[in-house]
Here is the input.
Amino acid sequence: MTIEEHVVLVDRDGHALGTAPKTSVHGRETPLHLAFSSYVFDHEGRVLLTKRADHKITWPGVWTNSCCGHPLPGEALDRAVLRRLSYELGLAVDRADLMLPAFSYRAVMANGIVEHELCPVYRVTADTPAVPNPDEVGETRWMPWKEFAEGVQNGLLAISPWCREQVPLLAELGSDPLTWQPAPATDLPPAARL
Here is the structure.
């Protein structure tokens, strides 16, 4: 028996409103819900990019940051990042650093499906190769951060809408992603402070 995954619904101030089945929250009237984005870097400062699997409901076949997902109700966001990195990319990492605690976005696909997420952003470092799970990821590639960030900001790279908004904010943290200073967990939205 498979247990249906639930997401945490939140208000504009980041307070939890309850939960809903994940399958029910991505449509034309998507409610604001808690999620995360993560950027995996190697020790050369290259970022791991992923192409979303072609059968994904939102932005199928689109290149994006390393890994996105939703915490389970009651799950700490940094733990959710590590869980999803293991599931989607076969990466066993021991830490996720909070970079953008209050990032939020709303994006609408051409077919009317909406993503609407309160989506803190994390940095992760990894030294092992990614092993993509085809249920989630179509392709991966490593790219120097400077080249990637400039390509996104200059509109030269086709990328997911959330990634296009996150990259300029991350670039403001400095040119070397390995030296970015993490934000305190107390800056997270209330629903994510466990």
